[in-house]
UniProtKB/TrEMBL annotation:
InterPro entries reported for this sequence: Nuclease_put_TT1808, Restrct_endonuc-II-like, Uma2
Any Pfam family hit: Uma2
GO molecular function: endonuclease activity
Keyword Nuclease: yes
CDD domains: DUF820-like
Domain (Putative restriction endonuclease) ranges: 18-133
Protein known as: Uma2 family endonuclease
Signal peptide range: none
SUPFAM superfamilies: Restriction endonuclease-like
Keyword Hydrolase among record annotations: yes
Keywords for this protein: Endonuclease, Hydrolase, Nuclease
Length: 155
């Protein structure tokens, strides 16, 4: 019996281990975004099957949907409005920027936030520009969502 071909590299995940800081940032981020729960779905660690590939942002901000508790959706196909990625300790920054350029933006995601814990910064990417935030208030013009990067990195 012949085994079916399997491409090991297709399933390889560069984010192989969730770290303490990564988990803490995911929690603080979803907690901070909780104030927008009535306007958007705030969805941590949900994998999407997008038009240009699969992606699992650390946090996705989506238009609100209606939960069907009898029939769940495993991989939504509607892209999030904002995909938030937190750089993991063993992950290359280029993994996240490549994902933004090759998967998120061509699939219709409007903004990608890349959080770099070591530098206590949030870089906001759009298809045409990038802006770095370390303090002050990050404000997404499309959604009106505001976030204080400094609040994520409190000691």
């Amino acid at each position: 019996m012949e085994t079916p071909p399997y491409d090991v590299f297709e399933e390889f995940q560069t984010e192989d281990v969730m770290s303490y800081n990564h988990a803490k940032l995911t929690y603080r981020l979803t907690k901070s975004l909780g104030q927008y729960d009535e306007l958007f779905d705030i969805l941590p660690e949900l994998e999407f099957d997008l038009s240009h590939g699969r992606a699992k942002p650390d946090v996705a901000i989506c238009l609100p949907g209606k939960a069907n508790w009898l029939k769940d959706i495993i991989r939504p196909t509607t892209p999030p409005l904002i995909a938030i990625e937190i750089l993991s300790p063993r992950q290359a920054l280029s993994d996240l920027t490549d994902k933004a350029l090759d998967v998120y933006f061509p699939s219709g995601v409007t903004t990608v936030w890349v959080i770099i814990p070591q530098f206590k910064q949030v870089t906001v990417l759009s298809p045409t520009q990038q802006e770095v935030f370390t303090d002050g208030t990050l404000r997404d013009e499309l959604t009106g969502i505001e976030l204080s990067p400094a609040s994520l990195f409190q000691e």
